């Protein structure tokens, strides 16, 4: 249960609204989306114009996989270039958004059983800044990251997310950043430039995921290993899938649901994204 003490200082100064801030799962794909003008990055830019301006942004990124749960709690998180083999222009990018240590403390207090650690060493990895710099290029909105505890399964993350629902009432935009279908070992590098190219199993699983989400039938998504061999091809490792669990746990039956950037890339990846609210 969330206590009133969890909202002292920063969150107490935010006006609570009956209308919840939207919550999104965003397929982030290649780091190059962070600097290129693509159909995906253009949609991120447009999305920011379609939703209320957030008081802060909290991102659960596939690229911060930790033992236990951590949250960035520094005044100015560094820009992390956690990839290799890309053009120098990508490594030159800095996204100087502020953090908010008090919001980090408030958020950690909402999840007492998780014993959330206030982290001063991480920053904003490419699962966060490649998206957010298109949405909020002025870098004026506080951005925090919440890590994913790799010792826990999907059900745990789904339930943990529910404890953060009060942030949506306070104008905090929560984003899960990963990819529903993400199998780098099977990427068709020769098809990178073919729009919408996906293997049959990838397209099948993408459709299955969308149907289950649309029907708000979340238990099969939580127990994705039971969805057949195609699901295991789509999710050979869980880090890019688990951010979806947070967004499933954070939406309500009253939220309007829509999909965007719903395309396959290079055979074994999908950029399919979801907005609730």
- What's the name of the CATH homologous superfamily? LigB-like
Taken together, the total number of domains comes to: 1
Largest sheet: 6 strands, mixed
Q: What's the alpha carbon Rg, rounded to whole Å?
A: 18 Å
* CATH C-level name: Alpha Beta
Number of strands: 10
Reported CATH architecture: 3-Layer(aba) Sandwich
**What is the SS-derived class?**
alpha/beta
Helical segment tally?
A: 10
Distance between the termini: 23 Å
In CATH terms, what is the fold-level topology? Protocatechuate 4,5-dioxygenase, Chain B
Please give the share of residues in helix.
25-40%
How is the largest sheet built, in terms of strand order? 5-2-6-1-10-7
Unreliable parts: 1-8
Order of helices and strands: EHEEHHEHEHHEHHHHEEEE
Report the portion of residues in β strands.
15-25%
What form results from the Cα inertia axes?
Answer: globular
Mean pLDDT: 93
Family: Belongs to the DODA-type extradiol aromatic ring-opening dioxygenase family.
Cofactor: Zn(2+)
Protein name: 4,5-DOPA dioxygenase extradiol
GO molecular function, one term: zinc ion binding
